[in-house]
């Protein structure tokens, strides 16, 4: 019996130890991120394309008759087709001038298809049911990289007439899935590279150093990677990877790196949104916050003339205003130095502050030097 109890205690102790180990191990893993999620490879990126086109087949929801660029575009297109028209005689209520945008991924080949976005340029009310005519999409170098055409999907609608209408989503913008046909490629050559640069999405010296250490450990080399600055980490391509650069990049992207997050508080005053990082700390500080409310009430009273008054006397409306000022009792809260994020939130909730109040408190704490974090206001 004693042996059974001893074994049971041992199993319980081992189970508790393993549970604690897995909890701590999971916590440590959760603080790490894959290199592919925190850094980009320099020179490998999307390219933006843009073009001007026409959407036809609209049910009277196109541009108005005074939209000159739509009329001129249609007249020019018809003239190129050998159809001479008088621009003043053209009605464009079934046509809309649009801007077409797309992203050209790296390594994409000629003949591949990409999605394109279509946005009304004039005063069209809806692109529902429209078809985008052939539109060249150019890069910043003014070269054509893709051709867009196809039926526009807006994911919504606009219905009704004579001032009584129903609208869902945004009918003046839409997409043409797979509507872009790639005609030219952006050449990106990886083979034979002597070095590869990784660019951190969030600049940080500590993360850059950790990233280079993780790469050296993953490649089992001492000086394969080195930080250039707070953003760039340079990788010297080893000799055995000269012809296998893609394999090298795949290996590097899968490595986990502990990310050092700066202490930062982000505030959006328009919406009352507050986001605080885990590293936010404060110094010893006392906080007192009260709300001052001023209310003005207006009552309209009728003033009638006396029965014996002059004939010119009239009944008038006299506004009577009452002003009241109310100040809520402010409670004092003391936050000790080194307080964590959770303790900050709990203490401020105990004072009874709202998100709007908290924004003012955070700004005052930063001005007083008690907030050990960067305060960013959107």
Describe the overall structure.
The chain is an alpha+beta fold and 378 residues long. The chain has 3 domains: 47-159 and 167-182, no CATH class; 189-258, Gyrase A, domain 2 (2-Layer Sandwich), CATH 3.30.1360; 265-291 and 328-377, no CATH class. It has helices at 2-30, 35-38, 68-80, 205-219, 245-253, 341-351, 355-367; strands at residues 32-34, 39-41, 47-56, 96-104, 113-120, 131-138, 144-151, 157-161, 164-168, 173-182, 195-200, 225-227, 232-236, 256-258, 264-268, 273-276, 281-282, 285-289, 292-303, 316-327, 331-335, 371-372, 374-377. The chain has a 6-stranded antiparallel barrel with strand order 3-4-5-10-7-6. It has a 4-stranded antiparallel beta sheet with strand order 2-11-13-12. A hairpin with a 5-residue loop joins strand 6 (131-138) and strand 7. The model is unreliable at 1-30 (pLDDT under 50).
Give a brief description.
The protein has 378 residues and is α+β, with helices and mostly antiparallel strands. Helices cover 25% and strands 36% of the residues.
Relevant terms:
four-stranded antiparallel beta sheet; 3 domains; Gyrase A, domain 2; 23 strands; alpha+beta; disordered N terminus; six-stranded antiparallel barrel; 378 residues; flat; single chain
